[in-house]
Write a structure and sequence with these properties.
The complex is a heterodimer.
Chain A lengths: L1 H8 L10 H8 L15 E6 L6 H16 L3 E6 L3 H13 L4 E5 L3 H13 L4 E5 L12 E4 L2 H14 L4 E6 L5 H13 L3 E6 L5 H14 L5 E4 L4 H12 L4 E5 L3 H9 L2 E6 L2 H18 L9 E2 L3 E3 L1 H12 L4
Parallel strand pairs in A: 1-2, 1-3, 3-4, 4-5, 5-11, 6-7, 6-8, 8-9, 9-10
Antiparallel strand pairs in A: 10-12
Chain B lengths: L1 H6 L1 H9 L4 H6 L4 H17 L6 H26 L7 H19 L3 H26 L3 H24 L13 H9 L1 E4 L2 E4 H19 L1 H11 L1 H6 L4 H27 L10 H11 L11 H20 L7 H26 L1
Antiparallel strand pairs in B: 1-2
Classes of the chains: A alpha/beta, B mainly alpha.
Chain lengths: 325, 350
C-alpha cells in the first residue's frame, strides 16, 4: 500500500504524454454519414445469436450500420444467445413489419419455423454467418458468411505448411456448435494431432492458467489455436509463462491480435471479415428491394476464410482500431 | 441461533477457562475440513497427473487459486456477517473498465484512472450495503439487481466510450509500467516464479484473519451474522458493519480488477459473469455457513486453493476435456463432503 500511495502521489498531477484519447483524436477522421441513394427509408432488422459484449458481432454491426447509412436504411439490431429468445426477437420484427430481415442460423432447428413465417409474410430474408446449408431450404434469398469447417480446414493447412506436429484448440464456450466445427475442421486437414481444451471465456486469468497448465503437462505442443481474437494475446502470455515455444494462431481479428501479428507473437489469423457480413447483408437486401438483384445468384457469398500474417498487419492496424476489421 | 444465546450463559465462562489441548483446538477451527480436503485433492493429482508436482506447475496452480482467493476472502467475511454478494464477478470487470476508460478518455496518467476506479468500486460496495440496510430486502435480491445493472453498464458504457465492446489499449500510457509492477508483476524466488497476486492474496488473508480474530470489528461481524437483532440489542452497529463488509468486497474487487487490466492491458466488457458463484463456493468449501455467523478467512483461502488445484489438476491429468465441468463439479462436491464429514466428527469428539 505504501508503494501504491507513493506511486500514486508522484505522477498524479500529470497527464499521460503518450496514448489515450488525445492521440486517437489526432488520428481520427470521421467516416461519411450521408446516404448515397434516394430510395424510401426502408427498415431492415438483424437478429443474431450473439452473446453480450462480443467483439465479433460488434464489427458485424459496424458493417451493417455503414451500409445502412449509405443505402438510406433504418437499421435495427437485436441479439440473444439462447435460441428460444432469438426466435422471439425475430417474431417481434415480423410483427413490426420490417422491410427486410437478416438472421443467423446458429441453432437452425429452432429458427426454421420463424424464418419461414417471415418469408410467408413477404419479408425478404438473408442469413449470415452460420447456417449456410439450410439457408435456401428455409426460404432465404442468400447466405453470406464463411463455413466454420472450411475455416478450420484452412487453419489446419496453414499449420501443415508451418511444419507443426501437435496443436491445442482452445474453446472458450463449452457446447458452442460453431466452436466444435472449427476445431473439427482443423483436425480434418492437419497432419499432426489436435487436442481440445475447454476454458471459461468470461474469466481471463482462468483462461491463462488453464492454458499454462496444458502446455506444462504436454511439452510437445507446438501450436495453440484460439477461436476468438481476445484470447490470442492471453495464449501468448500463457506460452511465455509456461516456457513453451508453441506458436499462437487465432480465428478472427482485433487490435491486440493485429499487434501480435506485427510483433510476431501471433503466427497467423484466419479472418471471416465480419464487417463484410454486416455490410453485404444490408446492401444485398437494398439491391433486392431496389432492383430485384441477388449477388451470387442465390449461391452462398463467402467472406472467408482469409489467412492473415505478419505482412498484412501494418495495413490492418488502423482498421481494427476503429472496429471495422 | 436463538437456542445458542439461551444456553450460552452458564457454560460459556467455564469453557473459556478450561485448558484445551492443541488437537482439540484445531478440531474446533472452521477451516479444518477444507485443509483435509485440500490435502486430499493435492495428493490425488500428485499421483494421477505427472506434471502436477513440478515447481512451474505449482506456481500456475497458486496463480489460479490467488485470482479466486483474493475475492473469496472478503466474500467469506461477508458471509460470516450473514450476507451474500452476487455482483462480485462483474464488479471486478467494472473496476478494470473504469480505470482503463478513465485513463484513456482523459488521456490521464493511468494512476489517476486507478484511483478513480477505487472510488467508483467502493461506491458500488457502499450502494450494496446501504440499499441492504435501508430497504431490509434480502441481499440476494439487492446484489442480483446490482449484478444485472453492472453487467449492462459495463457493456453500455464501454460501447459508448470506446465504440467497441472492449477497451482501448492503455499499454503505452504514462504510469502503466509502475501500475503493472504493483498489480500484475511476478517475482523470481530461486528459480520459482511467484505472481504478485499470490502476495496480495496472502496479505489479504492475514489482514482479514486479524480483523476477524483480534479486533472489535471482527466480533461485530460474527455477532451480526449470528443474529442481527441480538447484535443490535447489545450495541453492535449492524448497518455500519454490513456496509463495511460490502466495502471490503469492493476493495478486493478493485485489486482483482486492476490485476485484470494490467496483466492484459485491454479489458473485454462481457467478462466476469459467473465468477461470483465460484467465490461463494470457495468460501463455503472453506467452512463458511450459508446462514452466517461461522467461518474463517483462512478457510476461504483454502477453498480457493481447492478450486485452483481441481480446475488446473484436471488439465495436468489430461482427462477427456468433454467431461471437464463434470470432473470439476464432482471434485468440489467430494472435497466439500469430506469437509462436512470431518467437521461433524470434530464436533462429536470435542
Amino acid at each position: 500500500m505504501i508503494a501504491a500511495t507513493l506511486a500514486l502521489a508522484v505522477p498524479l498531477a500529470g497527464c499521460s504524454s503518450t496514448g489515450g484519447k488525445r492521440a486517437e483524436e489526432k488520428r481520427a477522421q470521421a467516416a461519411g454519414g450521408q446516404s448515397a441513394v434516394d430510395t424510401p427509408r426502408w427498415k431492415f432488422a438483424m437478429v443474431t445469436h450473439s452473446g453480450d459484449g462480443d467483439t465479433f458481432w460488434d464489427i458485424v454491426q459496424n458493417g451493417a450500420k455503414q451500409a445502412a447509412v449509405k443505402d438510406n436504411i433504418e437499421f435495427l439490431y437485436s441479439h440473444d444467445k439462447e435460441a428460444g429468445k432469438q426466435v422471439q426477437l425475430v417474431q417481434t420484427r415480423i410483427d413490426q413489419k420490417v422491410d427486410g430481415l437478416i438472421v443467423t442460423l446458429a441453432k437452425p432447428d429452432a429458427m426454421k419455423a420463424v424464418v419461414q413465417k417471415a418469408v410467408r409474410a413477404g419479408i425478404p430474408v438473408i442469413t449470415i454467418n452460420s447456417g449456410q446449408d439450410l439457408s435456401k431450404d428455409f426460404g432465404a434469398l442468400a447466405h453470406i458468411g464463411q463455413d466454420e469447417v472450411t475455416a478450420g480446414e484452412a487453419v489446419g493447412e496453414e499449420l501443415n505448411e508451418r511444419g507443426r506436429k501437435k496443436a491445442v484448440c482452445v474453446l472458450h464456450e463449452q457446447g458452442n456448435v460453431g466452436h466444435e466445427e472449427r476445431c473439427d475442421g482443423v483436425r480434418k486437414t492437419f497432419g499432426g494431432t489436435v487436442q481440445n481444451l475447454y476454458v471459461d471465456g468470461t474469466n481471463m486469468p482462468g483462461v491463462e492458467s488453464s492454458l499454462e497448465a496444458k502446455l506444462q503437462a504436454d511439452s510437445v505442443i507446438d501450436s495453440i489455436v484460439t477461436l476468438g481474437a481476445p484470447f490470442a494475446p492471453t495464449a501468448v502470455k500463457a506460452a511465455e509463462q509456461a516456457g513453451s515455444k508453441a506458436e499462437v494462431a487465432t480465428f478472427d481479428l482485433n487490435a491486440q491480435a493485429v499487434r501480435g501479428l506485427r510483433d510476431g507473437s501471433i503466427g497467423f489469423a484466419v479472418d471471416q471479415q465480419p464487417y463484410l457480413q454486416g455490410y453485404e447483408a444490408i446492401d444485398l437486401l437494398w439491391l433486392y428491394k431496389y432492383n430485384a438483384d441477388m449477388l451470387g445468384g442465390g449461391q452462398p457469398v463467402l467472406t472467408g476464410p482469409q489467412i492473415l500474417t505478419r505482412q498484412d498487419a501494418a495495413a490492418l492496424e488502423k482498421y481494427t482500431s476503429r472496429g471495422t476489421r | 441461533m436463538t437456542t445458542d444465546t439461551a444456553e450460552a450463559p452458564a457454560p460459556a465462562v467455564d469453557e473459556r477457562l478450561v485448558h484445551r489441548s492443541l488437537p482439540h483446538r484445531l478440531l474446533g477451527r472452521p477451516e479444518l475440513g477444507a485443509v483435509v480436503g485440500a490435502v486430499a485433492v493435492f495428493l490425488f493429482f500428485a499421483v494421477t497427473a505427472d506434471s502436477f508436482l513440478r515447481m512451474a506447475s505449482l506456481s500456475t496452480v497458486l496463480y489460479a487459486s490467488s485470482t479466486i482467493g483474493i475475492m473469496a476472502v472478503p466474500v467469506a467475511l461477508l458471509m460470516i456477517g450473514g450476507e451474500f454478494d452476487l455482483s462480485t464477478g462483474v464488479m471486478v470487470t467494472t473496476s478494470a473498465l473504469v480505470s482503463s476508460m478513465f485513463s484513456y478518455r482523459m488521456t490521464a496518467n493511468v494512476w489517476v484512472g486507478v484511483a478513480v476506479s477505487l472510488l467508483a468500486t467502493l461506491a458500488i460496495g457502499v450502494f450494496n450495503g446501504w440499499m441492504l440496510t435501508r430497504t431490509k430486502l434480502p441481499s440476494f435480491i439487492i446484489t442480483l439487481g446490482t449484478f444485472l445493472m453492472l453487467t449492462g453498464l459495463n457493456l453500455g458504457f464501454t460501447k459508448l466510450i470506446s465504440g467497441t465492446v472492449s477497451t482501448k489499449s492503455i499499454g503505452d500510457m504514462d504510469g502503466f509500467a509502475s501500475a503493472r509492477a504493483l498489480f500484475a508483476s511476478q517475482l523470481s524466488l530461486g528459480g520459482v516464479t511467484l505472481r504478485i497476486t499470490v502476495v496480495w492474496w496472502l496479505v489479504l488473508i492475514m489482514v482479514a484473519t486479524w480483523i476477524l480474530l483480534r479486533t472489535r470489528a471482527g466480533n461485530w461481524i460474527f455477532a451480526v451474522g449470528g443474529g442481527a437483532d441480538a447484535a443490535r440489542a447489545v450495541g453492535v452497529p449492524v448497518a455500519g458493519t454490513k456496509i463495511g463488509l460490502y466495502m471490503g468486497v469492493a476493495l478486493c474487487a478493485w485489486i482483482s480488477g486492476q490485476h485484470l487490466l494490467f496483466s492484459y492491458d485491454v479489458v473485454q466488457s462481457g467478462e466476469g459473469v459467473g465468477n461470483e458463484l465460484i467465490y461463494i463456493a470457495a468460501a463455503v468449501i472453506g467452512g463458511c455457513l450459508l446462514t452466517g455467523g461461522y467461518g474463517s478467512a483462512v478457510g476461504a483461502a483454502v477453498g480457493a486453493l481447492i478450486f485452483g488445484m481441481a480446475s488446473k489438476g484436471i488439465v495436468y491429468a489430461q482427462w477427456d476435456p468433454d467431461w471437464f465441468k463434470f470432473f470439476l463439479g464432482a471434485m468440489l462436491l467430494l472435497a466439500t463432503l469430506l469437509n462436512a464429514w470431518i467437521r461433524k466428527r470434530a464436533e462429536a469428539s470435542a
